[in-house]
Design brief:
With 192 residues, this protein is an alpha+beta fold. Helix content is 20%, strand content 12%. It has a domain of 99 residues: 2-Layer Sandwich (Alpha-Beta Plaits). The longest helix is centred in the N-terminal third of the chain and has 18 residues. The radius of gyration is 24 Å and the shape is extended. 15% of the residues are buried. The N terminus is likely disordered. The protein binds iron/sulfur cluster (2 copies).
């Protein structure tokens, strides 16, 4: 059943009758012409123009890909590989096997519903199940990190790798093999 102004049905955890709408106070006659805001906006633009003057480029523009965030110190806008949230990987154990035990915690908690796992009986004695199939739709993911938080065995992690592209949507659905390859590619940069 459609809820609110959206044209499609929504599963809302909060019922519409439980939502309190707090009306904003009406703007004064000075505020309603937005003159102060326009002047303030021009002031900020002008300040940025002056602070960038003479550099041949704006001081706020990063020259990507020659310049990359991971090469910058944190205080200058760099990233911390340990907590940056980009593409996923599936971790391996000491024996090189996928660590995932197919407990289904991550697909259950994922708000974007972009993790799909097919569990099977484990061929190993130390666990009951393992993922026969493990897929993440990286275009649907919102990189919230909740899958990582929920995993009881630290099998799924987000990596600092943010610049993988695909020509098709299908290429951006990472399967188990690709997720395990991501582990090999990133384990030195982000140890477990
Ligand atoms: S990061 Fe968030 S949205 Fe992406 S797969 Fe994990 S839980 Fe889902
Ligand atoms: S939470 Fe961890 S162990 Fe459970 S299914 Fe997801 S990756 Fe596998």
């Amino acid at each position: 059943m459609p809820v609110g102004p959206w044209p499609y049905p929504l599963d809302m955890a909060i019922k519409p009758e439980d939502v309190y709408v707090i009306p904003s106070p009406p703007p004064s006659s000075v505020e309603s012409v937005y003159l102060r805001e326009v002047v303030k906006g021009f002031g900020i633009t002008f300040r940025h123009m002056l602070t960038s003057f003479g550099q041949g480029k704006t001081s706020r523009t990063m020259q990507y890909p020659e310049q990359r965030r991971e090469d910058l110190p944190l205080e200058k806008g760099g990233i911390h590989p340990g907590n940056f949230r980009a593409f996923h990987r599936l971790n391996k154990d000491e024996a090189g096997r996928v660590k995932c035990v197919a407990c289904m915690m991550c697909p259950t908690i994922c708000p974007a519903k972009c993790i799909h796992i097919v569990a099977g009986e484990s061929p190993w004695e130390d666990r009951e199940k393992y993922p026969v199939k493990f897929e993440i739709d990286e275009l649907r993911c919102i990189y919230c990190g909740m899958c990582e938080e929920a995993c009881p065995v630290d099998a799924i992690e987000l990596t600092p790798v943010y610049d993988i592209v695909g020509m098709t949507r299908q290429e951006m659905i990472f399967d188990k093999e690709k997720l395990l390859k991501m582990y090999d590619l990133t384990i030195n940069r982000k140890p477990m």
